[in-house]
Each structure stands twice: as structure tokens, then as C-alpha cells.
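Q: Here's a chain of 297 amino acids. Please give me its 3D structure as C-alpha cells.
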Amino acid sequence: MIAPRRFLPSINALLAFEAVARLGSATQAAQELSLTQSAISRQLKTLEAQLNVPLLARQGRQLVLTEAGESYVLQVRDVLNRLAQASISARTNPMAGALNLAILPGFGMHWLAPRLRDFAQTHPEVTVNLSTRLHPFAFQNSAFDAAIHFGKEDWPGVSYLHLMPETVVPVCAPDLLDAPLEDASEILSYPLLHLDTRPRGWARWLAALGVAREPPSGMMFDQFSTMAHAAVHGLGVALLPTFSADPYLRDGQLVLASTQTTQSIGNYYLVWPEDRAETAALRSFKTWLAGQTDHIL
């Protein structure tokens, strides 16, 4: 048994409360849920009596959340969203369900996506759904089961599976340089392209090679893919992870701008909410992903 029944409100009461909290009106909530206004009012009274705490207060013609209501509605929405996702998964894939994964665009496109066919073949019972997120987010307000994170172990409320460090290489269009530079400091004479989520990327790369000078400012990009295309068109030198650079290097669109490579200070992780029960789909994906990165660690 999950909890005593007296602590488990009905779904109808939670739906009524969430609708009123969002719309500020029992009348509008009744229209949205195809109920009468009196039915909505009864659900709210039952819920408040069950919790023994006021959740809504009248302010003019509007119903507004109390302090307790503001906190409670966030958790209610999370529960309703997860219940809806679980129901969709049970309907579309009754054996294991879906895994909703937030990915970083460069890692997802160039490293993860080419390998997902193997996961699909070994785990046909799991459907992996991918969406791009550039920054950490609150799992409790999302439908995501896990995410790919770059940086340090600084995402609160999650568990971590270390995947690999990020090794970066400087690349440019073939006609920008006659040959890769032997002296890393010489790269400062060329236009440098920057990623907004790695504003100190060039400074760290130079420092790792013993160059204390600050890199010049230059064009800023929000994704590796757009920065790589800018480099292809001769706009400057880009500092790319090897998995992003390799396809362009193989087909000759980009060449190495330096003979030097270094590891960045960041690592890639799979993260998932530590306060949420792991699904079979997540356990299968974690095991598979750990096997994919064993040779890199």
C-alpha cells in the first residue's frame, strides 16, 4: 500500500483544483472540465477538508492560491503529468513504456543518435523520446525521466552516471590555414568562434597549453552545429568536441587548426531525479549507456 487512503485525494478533486488554480475561476474550470460550478465547488471543499488546510481564497471575483495552495499545485501538476505519461506509455508500449530523455544538441546528434539503433535492437520494448534542453531544469515540473548533462556534478536533486570527459579540437576551413599550427599561441592571430555555454572555452584550451594570454572576443553561438557551419564557411576557428568535429574532418569540410588537443574541464553525465522511482526503461538505458562508454572512461 502506497499511503493511507485518507491522504489520497480523488483525481477529480485534483483536476478541479488544478484548473481553478490555473484559471482563477470555478466557472471557467467547470466549463473546461464539462462539469457544473457547484460540482467544482464541492470537489474543492472536499479536498480542503481532506487536507485540513485552505488552498484557495476569494479576491474580488477571482479565486487565488493561498501560500499552501501555491506549493501544493506544483506537486499536483507533477503528479498529474506523470500519471498521464504513464498512461500513454502503458497504452503505446505495455511491455516497458517510453523513456523521455532531455539531450544536449551536439552530444545527441553526433554521439548518442548514431548509437541508438543498437539500443533499439537490444531493447525493442523501450521507446526513447528525445527533446533538446540546453540548461538544467526542474524534473518535478517536467515529463522527463532523465537528461544528458555537461559540466560538473552541480545539478541539484539528481543521481549521476558519469559518461565521459569532453575532448576538444580547434578546427577551421581548409583555406584558412596552410597547415595545423605547432605553436598554440599563433591561433590568437585568427578569428575565434565562441559558444555561449562555454564562454571560457578558448581561455581554458590556451591555459592548458601554457598560453596565459586572453583570447580575443568573436562571434558567439548557442550550439556546436551552427558554430561548425560558420567555421566551414571560413568565419573563424571553432573549438569543437571530437564527436562534433569528426564528421566534418572526415569529409574534408574542416581541418585541424592546431596539432594540440586537450580535455575540457567538463564531463558528460546521465542524470535522473533521485526522488523518483526508476522505471524498467531507465534501468535498461543506464546499463546500455554505461556499456557504450566503458572504453572511454
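Q: Can you summarize the key feature?
A: The chain has a mean pLDDT of 90.
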